[in-house]
Amino acid sequence: MCEVGEDYRESAPGGPPLTRPGREQKCVKCKEGPPVVVIRAGDAFCRDCFKVFYVHKFRAMLGKNRLIFPGEKVLLAWSGGPSSSSMVWQVLEGLSRDSAKRLRFVPGVIYVDEGAACGRSPEDRARTLVEVEQVLQRVGFPSHVIALEEVFGLPPSVLRCFAQEPESVGTEGAYKAAVDSFLQQQCVLGAAGEEPWSQPRPQGPQSLAGPPTAVQTEALSGLFDSVKTLTAKEELLQTLRTHLILHVARTHGYSKVMAGDSCTRLAVKLMTSLALGRGAFLAWDTGFSDERHGDVVVVRPMREHTLKEVAFYNRLFAVPSVFTPAVDTKAPEKASIHRLMEAFLLRLQAQFPSTVSTVYRTSEKLVKAPRDGCAASPPGPRCLLCLCTLDVDSADSATAFGAQTSSHLCQMQAPGPQAEAGTPTTLCCCPGLGGAQGCCASPPWTPCRPTSWPRPSSAARGPGASRRSKRICWGTAMMRRCPVGAEVRALGPHPTRNGQARTGRLPVVVHMYK
Amino acid sequence: MVSIFSLPRIRRSLPFPPRPDPEMPAPQCASCNKARAALRRPRLGQALCGTCFCAAFEAEVLHTVVAGRLLPPGAVVAVGASGGKDSTVLAHVLRELAPRLGISLRLVAVDEGIGGYRDAALAAVRRQAARWELPLTVVAYADLFGGWTMDAVARSTAGSGRSRSCCTFCGVLRRRALEEGARLVGATHVVTGHNADDMAETVLMNFLRGDAGRLARGGGLGSPGEGGALPRCRPLQLASQKEVVLYAHFRRLDYFSEECVYAPEAFRGHARDLLKRLEAARPSAVLDLVHSAERLALAPAARPPPPGACARCGALASRALCQACALLDGLNRGRPRLAIGKGRRGLDEDGPPREAEPEPSGPPASEPVPAF
After folding, report:
1. Among candidates B170, B333, A105, which has minimal Cα distance to B178?
2. Are A53 and A29 in contact (CB under 8 A)?
């Protein structure tokens, strides 16, 4: 591959060497056992060495970053898929080991039932939930089974970023001090014969509320149906899911959330974020730790495991998982940016086996700082939905100015559309359940009507909307302008057009467009 | 009037022009409200007629140049003209804007020595220069780089079982040639016709190849010209390729539209394929990528070292030898891939190439590397 830094060999063979483990070949590590799986284009491992390699990667990722303090409550986000199942299994095995290297945090598991977003019938969802509960019984951690419909009941405070105390951030000294104090505590407790946290008590799954009502399910299905493009649907689903998980973490006192994104998925996510205009936030979206939500930190311990390794591990060691169809199951390749990127990367990977690892290595070089040393300035306003510091305010950016110019030209020469567009498209308050269509009945702005286009750009709108549009990052703003017809209107804690105060609902609304 | 952006929506097969759909007639131009719209702009989707679109395009280029202070008044600007659509549009727009900006233009064409491609392109450039009455200078690789044309480079790198990496050589050498040509005509600035699609492809390609150094460097509107190199900029950087083609169509510009003979081997083809698919799924993908590229934050260790001067030719270089000298060194020694890849092992960075090296092809090693 035309990879930067590839070594030049004088007599290169034609194409990458295709070694298949023959009968004579042994595991490259222990040189004794029969190889069962080939990792990294050429290294054949036997079953035991593979297990050691896999577990070591997981533990090393946690240990290297030193973000999870002993005794801390960590919520494992389990989707039922292979990577997160593998992660949960690793945590289970890590906690049960009787050695000094045992994992030392207090886990809980959360499962979010997204059936309404994918359009599944209640019977299918009930069947899946039975399987889920079986697996959770086996795992035995305190678990939470939540339906995505609960997102309508979240308070607006989820969209605020809570400041984190600086002393608790993992500096070297802080981590060591925490471990030392924990070990001392262990000695004391060991003397008293108690270890309250070490054996996970088998607890049944706890739900926040009962099964979701039909009204809520319909509202959620309506929400997702009105989003016309699959890209926007996937982004919306991710946002809602993240906020729901964070809310559960906050209410139950978890300070960390573990997400099971594997190396392959993160490479796809990185390229997708790039294509969606989220280049400024790549380090948060794909790095090991994501602390933009303030008090709860999302970590990704599986980020070095490729999907191939995960699949083989799950198969060889019988890790239980539950298959649930997602929003993009069976979708064609062109349906969304995510699907396109995934198909492209996997196709390229088949031709150049180091593609995914190259993208991953590049992602490791990304830092969570604004470009060109603006770190000294105080952190600016944050996006309403994804809570990243805004990336559209810099006056010298080429693309921001480009958008302004074209709309300025439009404004200068077109008094007609501007009169329609100039009305401040302030935010409609829809408590999320019944008001969607009602709100759409009377606004004077053009996007409600199917045949009229131009869509007013952000600069051409009135001051109310420009204030609102300054509250979302570029990626979310582009998501709002999905070209096929729907707009996802993101609302923040603003008063309504009538000046009424907001009720305590999660203020994300999708207006129906036809 | 044919609307290019409405073509994908039409399900029936085409003979041109398609029957207008009675439910969705072509709207009025959004800016003059008199003529029927001829196209929709990809970024925001507003419908414009041909004249208004050209005016908007030129206004945007003017604004790019003025707001970025790219070309100060009195500058002598060397336009890298390849005969293709981008450089043709660039030269045309800059020629229209030259009185307002107070700049003077020179065309510089580079002859890489690719048979069957470059000669036809150069013919197009000569026609343009004659029509616009701009002075044209042609610089050839064969003259500047000791007889190495791209065809000779391709022959030299072929046969090792890997790709020929022609674009690596051509890109580096062409930039050097452009700079030389610009100096020859006494220019103070160099402009090239890279459009937004090129920038988007570049950032995708750099991620796929893991080139953190280029990612850290790229994304802005051009380089200010450190270390004695001429300042370079790309005024068309915010214009997507569709708009460039449409502008050339509406202004009836004459350009050469075939692709280079070596283009199918390039890795950029993968990135271009991906970009086309992304654009089909989402027209704003190109601008989103450019926006992302501007805002990438890479670790300080990944950034390239501050540039110094090449030991041999004195040009801007991050290492002891600039890339052009290193590549030529490798070619002259019969080991063309010497400067490609990490470490640059075996590169003797002091003094001219050894004369005892056997030469499979190309000029003899005793010819000294030309001083720039």
Report:
1. B170
2. yes
With an 8 Å Cβ cutoff, are A12 and B161 in contact? Answer: yes
DSSP-derived letter for residue B128 is: H
Residue B369 has pLDDT above 70, yes or no: no
pTM of the model: 0.76
Query: How many CB atoms lie under 10 A from the CB of residue B333?
Result: 18
Give the separation between CA A64 and CA B2, rounded to whole angstroms: 60
What H or E segment, with its residue span, contains residue B108? strand B104-111
Q: What is the pLDDT along chain A (514 residues), one digit of tens a residue?
A: 555 655 444 333 444 455 555 556 788 888 888 888 888 767 889 898 999 999 999 989 988 888 888 888 999 999 989 999 999 999 988 887 665 577 788 999 999 998 888 888 889 899 999 999 999 999 989 999 998 888 888 777 666 655 544 444 445 567 777 777 777 777 777 665 444 444 444 444 455 456 778 888 888 888 888 888 888 889 889 988 998 999 899 899 999 999 999 999 999 999 999 998 888 888 888 888 888 887 889 999 999 999 999 999 999 999 998 988 888 888 888 888 999 999 999 999 888 888 999 999 888 888 877 655 444 455 666 776 777 776 665 544 545 444 444 445 444 443 333 333 333 333 333 233 232 333 333 322 222 223 222 333 333 333 333 444 456 677 766 666 543 323 333 333 333 334 333 333 333 333 322 2
Name every chain A residue with its beta carbon within 8 A of the beta carbon of B296. Answer: 279-280, 282, 366, 371
Q: Identify the residue among B41, B282, B284, B337 best suited for mutation to test binding to A, counting A beta carbons within 10 A and taking the highest.
A: B282
Q: How far apart are CA B265 and CA A459, in angstroms?
A: 43
Q: Is there a contact between B26 and B20 (Cβ–Cβ < 8 Å)?
A: yes
Can you tell me the distance from the alpha carbon of B270 to that of B272, in angstroms, rounded to the nearest whole number?
A: 5
Q: Which long-range contacts (CB under 8 A, 24 or more apart) does B353-362 make?
A: B353/B329, B357/B333, B358/B334, B359/B332, B359/B334, B360/B156, B360/B334, B361/B152, B361/B155, B361/B156, B361/B334, B362/B147, B362/B148, B362/B152, B362/B156, B362/B331, B362/B332
Q: How far is A327 from chain B (nearest CA, A)?
A: 17
How far, CA to CA in Å, does B331 sit from each of A108, B154, B160, B353? 62, 11, 14, 10
Which pLDDT tens digit goes with each residue over B309-353?
777 777 777 777 888 888 888 888 877 777 776 554 444 444 344
Residue of chain A whose alpha carbon sits nearest to that of B165: A2
Residue A258, classed as helix, strand or coil, is strand
Compute and round to an integer the Cα radius of gyration of chain B: 22
3-state secondary structure A58-108: HHHHHHHHCCCCCCCEEEEEECCCHHHHHHHHHHHHHHHCCCCCCCCCEEE
CB < 8 Å to B263, chain A: none
Burial class of residue B294, CB neighbours in 10 A (0-12, 13-18, 19+): buried
Q: Which residue does chain A place closest to B301, by CA atoms?
A: A365
Chain position carrying tokens 């000298």: B325
Nearest to B299 among A231, A365, A399 (CB): A365
Contact call for A279 and B161, based on CB within 8 A? no
Cα dihedral angle (A353, A356, A358, A359), rounded to 10 degrees?
150
Instruction: Give the chain A residue whose CA is nearest to the CA of B284.
Output: A478
* Beta carbons of B270 and B227 less than 8 angstroms apart: no
Mutate to test the interface with A, among B49, B292, B318 (most CBs of A within 10 A): B292
Sign of CA dihedral A174, A178, A184, A185: positive
Strand extents, DSSP E, A114-218: 143-147, 205-206
